[in-house]
Each structure stands twice: as structure tokens, then as C-alpha cells.
Amino acid sequence: MFPLKCALVAATCVALLAQSPKYGLGRTPTPEEIRSMDITPAPDGTGLPEGRGTAVEGRDVYARRCARCHGANGQGGDEPKQSTLVGGRGSLKTAKPLKTVGSYWPYATTVWDYVNRAMPLDHPGTLTHDQVYSLVAWILQMNGIIGEHDVLDAKTLPQIKMPNRDGFVPDARPDVGGKTPAPKKMAGKKPRADGGQR
Amino acid sequence: MARRSTRRRFLEATGALSAVLTGCKRNAEEDEGPRRIGKPLRAYGERSEFEKSARALPTTKLLEVGSSYTPLADLVGIITPSSLHYERHHSGVPMIDPAEHRLLIHGLVERPLIFTMAELRRFPSVSRICFIECAGNSHQGYGARDAPTVQLSHGMVSCSEWSGVLLSLLLSEAGVQPAAKWILAEGADACKMQRSIPVEKADDIIVAYGQNGEALRPEQGYPLRLVIPGWEGNANMKWLRHLKVVDQPYMARDETAKYTDSMPDGTARQFTFVMDAKSVVTFPSGGQKLAGAGFYEITGIAWSGRGRIERVEVSADSGGTWQDAALSEPRLPAAITRFRLPWRWDGRETIVQSRTTDATGYVQPSHEALVAVRGANYEYHNNGIRPWRVMADGSVTDVPA
After folding, report:
1. What is the ipTM of this complex?
2. Cβ-proximal residues to B266 (8 Å cutoff; 6+ apart), any chain
3. Residue B67 in contact with residue B154, Cβ under 8 Å?
4. What is the pTM of this model?
5. How would residue A184 be classed by pLDDT, with cut points 50, 70 and 90?
6. Does A4 touch chain B (CB under 8 A)?
7. B126 touches chain A (CB under 8 A)
């Protein structure tokens, strides 16, 4: 008990010293407080936790935890809508784009993060890190992005280049509307995003 | 028994007294016989039992994930009652004890800090009236314009007075480092939803604990949320618990897979935060019925994420002519502004619509102009003009695009 008390006293002293400078409010968070909330990996993989998984391992987890909504092969279910995970490559320019992990999501870290924080939809936070790595591997394998025995971990996952990585452009608005309604100039032109300018 | 009879006499006496004093008459029947006084004082008020206006809920099975819609046609003025503020939840409404809630600020800062709610309430505070609009409001609009009422077509916008602390103040207490470019904001809902927000916007962002004079409603982020005036609702993080100052956007699901705008060439616009100028007529609007030819007041709402509303024009003759509507004060930047125009309906079929101009000179575009540039799959940020058809029998319907 004694060392614990010492630690508490020390932590309290640090906290008192570390209040906000102008108003003297708040305290320094403990490493554990930061760790408990700091769960989002950066697109370069910084912050990904330990763990590993392959598509072969993910197939089984997927069947038990995911297939009910996303379909046996990632084709999507009735509800919730837009839960299709597989396919759609080449469809984004068409009249009926199919946005899936394979066709639309630009970063593998995003897939890992979203599965980790939000899935399964009705029981988020119940998957282990190994399960999350293996599920991402299975979803990417179903999309033909990796092989079934490729190991995903904190090192390999951020190295994956998703097919639509370069598909996003900055906000180009105002693109429509102006002092005169329906600018004629735009009408005859092939619509395109104004890449690069904000 | 004696006690009841005494009470009754007291009630009769006070009832008679109050009738004499106020001269109030409710109806002839009540004035003839003995009257009962009304209901007692109560600690927290409720609306009249005759008022039934409600949010529209989706027909999906899982109501923890989805949107409800504000009944815009039932509202007056510019403030949305907190009970009718639209909802958008991605993982249900968490129940949070404010005594246990903390806000953590860390990352590229000199002094990581963690605050209790009581501490946040001690900082100098601000209040601001502004709208919050879901990026997907009027999402039915790009493809087929098929929402039958203004509640379903435009009901994912609401306007409240929000109170809290400026984010820039909290960041200056933590000491932002020069490499800082973005802030990753995260909620305490089950999915810990998060968004990346440019750090330079912090001067304008409220870390809010108050809505319309009281604490936030649970559906609106109790006990703490971000309010980013004029920016898409999704970035206005509810149940806020965590701000990480970072050097790049973290590419969350809701800024990549969702809330990105698909263009016809296959690219998608990303970080399209601002909600452009938009207006809609709420009377007459889809689903309503006019009693017959004669006088009505056309009314509706206008708002812009880029500033104040400067003008609303209304056409009541199928787009033939446009008249300036009166704009009610206050007209606040990034807040709903109400417009009104006296109208004498001649009883013939016609189309009623509005278009607004904001402080930047931007004019709300037509549906056709939007689709010509953005295509039918843009999905978000639809601010096109919305027409309503008044039929000769007085019924009001949607006008399919």
C-alpha cells in the first residue's frame, strides 16, 4: 500500500502543477487515461496496436460475427443498407456507383479503425485486436487486394495501397450558384472536381 | 369528509375570484356552473396535451442507428425546441453521468489536460444561436426528388442557442505546438465516433454544454459536444470526450467512406464541411391542405453556413415572377432566418418556391443546376431550390424532379 500512496501523492503534485496556465483548471491526464481514449491509428499506421491476423483466420470470425448483416460473401444484406463490403471496382464513374471497402475506402487503417471501434454494429468493442486484424485481412482478400495467407499487423497493414487511395479531391465549392442562377459556363463542360484548390 | 368539503369551498372561492380578477372566459358552459381551477405548479414543464407535433422516425428496425426529422412545417420563429431537434445517431444515445465525464486534450500540445464538467463550466463562456444541418439533409434530392413533406425533405436542420467554452480558449490553455494542423474529435458513444477538424477553425467552435437555456439533451450530446457554426452536422461531435491535436487528418470512416461527395468522373470531394445557402417554404408545403382561395402568409426558413441571410425571393406563380419576402430579425450568421410573404391564393393550381442569397452574394441554385455539375450520386450537401405544387383542391404535393 505504501508505494501506491506515494505514487498517488506524487501524481497529485504533478496535477496541481499542471493546471491550465491562465485559469488554473484541469490537471495532467495519467498515461492510462490517455491510453484508454487514444485508439485511432493515423493513416501511416502510427498508433496501431500489437496483434496479427490472416484472411484464413478472419473467414471464421466473419461468419460468426459479421455475415448476418454483410452477407456470407460481403455482398451486403437488407438492413442496414449500404453494408456491402465487396465489389464495385470500376463502378464509381458509372450511373450506379457501388461504394465498398474495395472500391471506395482509401486507407486500410480506416477499415481497421472502423471495425475496431464500431463493429459489430450492435456490439461494438467486443472484438480482440487479433480478430480485427484477421477480419480486415478477410475483407481485403475478398476484394482481391491481398492473399489469403498474408499476415496483417501494425507493420504490414499501413503498407497496403487501397485501390481508391487517389480518388479523393478537395472541396471545390462554390461550384454551383452565384449572382446569376445556373451559370452557363458550367453547363457545356464535363463536370469535374477542382482538384487542388480550396 | 369535512376536510374535502372545506377544500372544495376554497376551490370554488378561488375559482370565482380568479374569474372575476382576470375576466377570463373559456366557454359558455364553464361560465354557467361551478368551475374547477386548473392544474397545479409543476417543477418541469411539458407542452399542452393538445400539441402533437413530433419528429418523424425512420421505418428501419434498428432505431439506435439512423436519423429523425424535425417537423419544420409545425414550427414558428427560428428556434427549434430541443425536444424536436433532429437526431442522427451512429451507435445509439449513450447515458452519461456528467460527474463521471471528462474531456481529454492531448497530442501536439505543450500541456496535455483533462477537465471535469464542473471545471469546463468555470471557464469564460459564450452563447450563440446557430443551425446544425446534417450533410445528408435533402439527400433524396439529387436522384429522384421523392420526399412528400418538408419534414422528410428538409427536417435534418435545426436551430438552437448553444452555450459553452470556445475551443480556441481550451487549446490555448493546452498550448498548441506549431506542427499542429488538425484536431481529432471523438465522442463517448458506443462506436466512439470521430472526425478530423482543421485546427484553424477552433476560434469559431464551441465546446458546448448548453442548448436553449438548459443542459444539452442526451440526443444532442449530453453532457458535452462540439458546435461548429455552419459546418455539416457530423463534424459537430456529440458526447465529446477526447480531442487529439495532430499534424494530419486521421481519415476516419466518416470522412472517407461516408460524408464524401461523389462526382460523375468517379472522384469524390472530401472535407466538404460548409453547408451552403439554402431555403425552403414550410407553408404551403407537401402534405398540407389549404382551406380555399383567399389570404395566406407564405412562410419558410433560410440559412447559410457562409454567413447571414441577405435575401429570400419567393415565387408563387410557378417560377414566373419572384418577390422579396420580409426577413424576420434577428438575422444571425449561420442561423436560421424566417421569411414571410403575404399571399392571396386565387384557387388555381400553382407552384410555390423560394431562393435565398447569403452575405457572400451566393444565390441558392436550382435542382437542375446542381445536378448538371454534380450528377445524381452526389448524395450530400443538397441545397437546391425546392418547389411545392398547390393543387386546385388546396392539397399541396411534392414536385417530382
Report:
1. 0.89
2. A92, A93, A97, A167
3. no
4. 0.89
5. very low
6. no
7. no
For residues B257 and A37, give the distance between their C-alpha atoms in angstroms, rounded to a whole number: 23
Grid coordinates representing B160 are 438552437
Cβ-defined contact of B65 to A169 (cutoff 8 Å): no
Which cell numbers in the block locate residue B375? Answer: 450528377
**How remote is the C-alpha of B349 from its chain's centroid?**
31
Decide if A176 and B62 are in contact by the 8 Å CB cutoff. Answer: no
Contact B155, B139 (CB under 8 A): no
Written as one letter, the residue type at B327 is L
Quickly list DSSP for A77-130: -SSSTT---S--TT-TTSSS----TTTT---HHHHHHHHHHH-STTSTT-S-HH
Distance between CA atoms of B80 and B71, rounded to whole angstroms?
9
| Tens digit of each residue's pLDDT (9 = 90 or more) over A105-157 | 999 999 999 999 999 999 999 999 999 999 999 999 999 999 999 999 999 99
pLDDT (tens digit per residue) in B171-207: 999 999 999 999 999 999 999 999 999 999 999 999 9
Alpha helix positions (H), B43-132: 117-120
How many angstroms separate the CA of residue A7 from the nearest CA in chain B? 19
To the nearest whole angstrom, how far is the Cα of B148 from the nearest Cα of chain A? 21
| The three cell numbers locating residue B189 | 458513444
Contacts of B94 in chain A (CB under 8 A): none
Sort residue B87 into left (φ over 0), alpha (ψ -120 to 50) or beta: beta
Is A198 buried (19+), middle (13-18) or exposed (0-12) by CB count in 10 A? Answer: exposed
For the segment B43-97, what is each residue's pLDDT rounded down to a tens digit? Answer: 999 999 999 999 999 988 889 999 999 999 999 999 999 999 999 999 999 999 9
